[in-house]
Amino acid sequence: AVERTLSIIKPDAVAKNVIGEILTRFEKAGLSVVAAKMVQLSEREAGGFYAEHQARPFFKDLVSFMTSGPVVVQVLEGEGAIAKNRELMGATNPKDAAPGTIRADFAVSIDENAVHGSDSEASAAREIAYFFAATEVCARIR
Ligand code: CMP
């Protein structure tokens, strides 16, 4: 089925100047950008986005990293977009990420791991709505 998923290019990847290279990987894999913006997240925005991790020991570091510089937030659309994006990203910890994945190629640690992607249909719906009004998500031109 055609799905939408929320993708974030994190501060480490933005600082490395690889926004274009990462978006190209999505496009070459058949995913289309249907909404996008560059933003500097506040602590409140980053904390709210990662609310499910609030009790985890890494939460404070996660919020501090995600607010350390601008991020690029986008909605990707395509066949099986949620799983496809997770395949392209590779494992959360770049040390475990398969060769050729975004995290293997651009990330240095589990904290600074280049990209975020929704992990399920339910989180995709919540995460897209967290960053974009329905009117900001465009229909893909086919
Ligand atoms: P992300 O997919 O954005 O979701 C939560 C983030 O927390 C994750 O990527 C990692 O960058 C970060 N993180 C740090 N430590 C851990 C951990 N032990 N398990 C999962 N995520 C972690």
UniProtKB/TrEMBL annotation:
It is an enzyme of class 2 (transferase). ATP binds at residues 10, 58, 86, 92, 103, 113. Transmembrane segments: none annotated. It comes from Azotobacter beijerinckii. It is found in: Cytoplasm. Residues 2-139 form the Nucleoside diphosphate kinase-like domain. GO terms for biological process: CTP biosynthetic process; GTP biosynthetic process; UTP biosynthetic process. Its EC number is 2.7.4.6. NCBIfam families: PRK00668.1 (NF001908). This is Nucleoside diphosphate kinase. InterPro entries: NDK-like_dom (IPR034907), NDK-like_dom_sf (IPR036850), Nucleoside_diP_kinase (IPR001564), Nucleoside_diP_kinase_AS (IPR023005). Belongs to the NDK family. The lineage of its organism: Bacteria, Pseudomonadati, Pseudomonadota, Gammaproteobacteria, Pseudomonadales.
